[in-house]
Design a protein that fits this description.
The protein is α+β, with helices and mostly antiparallel strands. The protein contains 9 helices and 5 strands. It is globular.
């Protein structure tokens, strides 16, 4: 079985991943530029720096959740000096299958924080709890999957979610708080 250190080494540096993106690249970069860590939180991240963490991000460029969550993680990573590597989910099912959401879903992104020895210290993803509530609320009005309207209406919901993830700073703050909470346990 591949170790977390090996997965990290196999991963793509964040900057290379972003430059290779075909979907959501502009939105991801825009969020990364517009989101910032509050000055009062810098002490928390300075303390994390001493733990010499690294992050493995299981992702794909088409994922709307990744579009919003990754730039927030990258701002955190910069503040806490965490080297971040991206592992593509669809080419690495062996890894994602160790981090299934609710034991069944290959939902992404998943952030795996490891120490310099490759030991898992925290896992986060795929969504902050309040963001999950928001998405479930939007999806609650969809017809059943066998309804002929389902596909068209689902596309509209996805458009709304993508727009909200791109623009709604309160959703970014939920992601930030949720990641920070997971990291507080390290």
């Amino acid at each position: 079985m591949t170790t977390l250190n090996e997965w990290f080494e196999k991963g793509i540096p964040a900057i290379e991943f972003i430059s290779s993106m075909k979907v959501h690249k502009e939105n991801l970069q825009s969020i990364q530029e517009r989101f910032s860590i509050s000055a009062e939180d810098q002490g928390f991240f300075n303390e994390l720096t001493t733990k010499e963490l690294r992050a493995i991000v299981i992702t794909e460029d088409w994922c709307g959740d990744a579009m919003m969550n990754i730039p927030i993680l990258l701002n955190i990573a910069e503040a806490a000096n965490i080297e971040t590597r991206m592992v593509l989910r669809d080419q690495n099912l062996e890894l994602i299958d160790q981090y299934l959401t609710n034991g069944t879903a290959r939902a992404i992104p998943i952030f795996i924080f490891i120490d310099k020895n490759g030991e898992e210290k925290a896992v986060w993803g795929p969504r902050a709890p309040k963001v999950q509530e928001y998405v479930m609320e939007l999806r609650s009005d969809l017809p059943s999957k066998d309804d002929e309207r389902f596909e068209a209406e689902q596309k509209e919901v996805i458009k709304k979610i993508t727009a909200a993830f791109s623009e709604e700073k309160h959703l970014w703050d939920e992601v930030y708080s949720s990641i920070k909470e997971a990291m507080g346990e390290i």
